[in-house]
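2024-03-11 09:14:02 DEBUG pipeline.ingest accepted 1 chain
2024-03-11 09:14:02 DEBUG pipeline.ingest length=196
2024-03-11 09:14:03 DEBUG pipeline.predict start
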Amino acid sequence: MNEQEIKKTENILNMCVDLDVFFSSAMENMAILKAYSETNEDIRKCDEDVKKLISDSIRLLEQQLFIEVSKIFDSAETGKHQNVSLNRLRILLENEEENGNGSVRIVIDALNELCDYYSNTGMSEMRNKILAHHDKIELDKKQMKVVPYPMIEKLVLEGERINRAAFMALLGIERSAYDYNEMIRRYKNAIQTMIC
């Protein structure tokens, strides 16, 4: 590998590491939301102030998760600035493939499929029109498209898996998956402790 090839690989790995941080955060938020959902019966027994606090917390977590997922699927660039996104990773991997690394094709194909899936959710438009800018016309419609939680969960879990596959394709290093079920269990226990 020459110095230029090393730099390109380093850029891809840095992108994967940065994305990993974002996926980790999104998975933590999803695990908290899932834990709240699974402790709903216990939460209903709480006094009104606790229920309001939990309800407000859930709303904020949902909004944060929505924004985080939207950013993970941002375009490769905004103006002259490169984004840390799966679309940017896809471009970097396509350049790597052109340089003779055929093992990244499977990762690129998976990224294409997941990015297409994201495009069909309508999340990007909602982020741009409502969450990011409070677009008056959209707010006046008083209609906000609901993106089912399983769709968001699929975007995060599959995106994280693809990001790990990029590590493997570039270095042959298998990075352990996050234990999403363990995260849910941990938060569920914490919530039950908090509300008792």
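2024-03-11 09:14:41 DEBUG pipeline.report Residues 109 and 196 are 48 Å apart (CA to CA).
2024-03-11 09:14:41 DEBUG pipeline.predict end
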